[in-house]
Amino acid sequence: MTTLNKILSAADRTKFATDTGAKMHAILQHITISDHTNNDDAEIISRIKANPDILRFFSTNSRTEAPIAGTINGRFISRRLDRLVIDPAAQTIAVLDYKTDTDRTILHNQYVAQIREYVALLRTIYPTYKITGHILWTHDFSLENIPLK
Fold first, then answer.
1. Using an 8 Å Cβ cutoff, are 36 and 61 in contact?
2. Which of 8, 43, 83, 119 has its CA 20 to 30 A from that of 66?
3. Nearest-angstrom CA–CA distance, 91 and 126
4. All residues at 6 or more sequence positions from 100 whose CB lies less than 8 Å from its CB, including other chains
5. Parallel, antiparallel, or unpaired: how do β-strands 130-137 and 142-146 relate?
6. Strand, coil or helix: what is 90?
7. pLDDT in tens, 113-138
8. Helices (H), 1-149
């Protein structure tokens, strides 16, 4: 019985984490900070505005749920990027992925690999651009810059 309780408890935690992540993702994908920003999510908006490095991903020139596809090492890959900022004048691209984990260490290597995959896809499309990858940890609204190879 103890084992069943542990399994159910783990399943409940996983479902809660998945549900929480989906809700936060849905909120963030609809936020664009401008002079006419809707204040329905005032707390989240104030957290975004508090950090200029995060704010740029929620400006009117950012793209949300941006589709991307390409081939890496002979394998076709199709993904959707949480946030993408392309600056043709500066020839820079910044990609952002939201993560709701409170313990960054558990899946960190997978998340870094995910961001690096996004960057690799973008490099095939924009070979002359400087591309950066980032994770927004939504539990504390901190931004992690991912080192790229």
1. no
2. 43
3. 9
4. 17, 20, 21, 24, 25, 137, 138, 139
5. antiparallel
6. coil
7. 999 999 999 999 999 999 999 999 99
8. 2-29, 42-49, 52-55, 108-125
Q: Which residue matches tokens 């076709």?
A: 76
- CA atoms of 137 and 140, how far apart (whole Å): 6
The H or E element containing residue 134 is strand 130-137
Q: Please state, in angstroms and rounded to a whole number, the distance separating the CA atoms of residues 33 and 57.
A: 9
CA dihedral 14, 106, 24, 122 (to 10 degrees): -130
DSSP, collapsed to helix, strand or coil, labels residue 38 as coil
Per the DSSP assignment, residues forming a β-bridge with 93 are: 86, 131
Strand, coil or helix: what is 91? coil
Q: Could you tell me the sign of the dihedral formed by the alpha carbons of 64, 65, 70, 72, in that order?
A: positive
**pLDDT tens digit string along 94-114?**
999 999 888 889 899 999 999
What structural domains does the chain harbor? 2-146 (3.90.320.10)
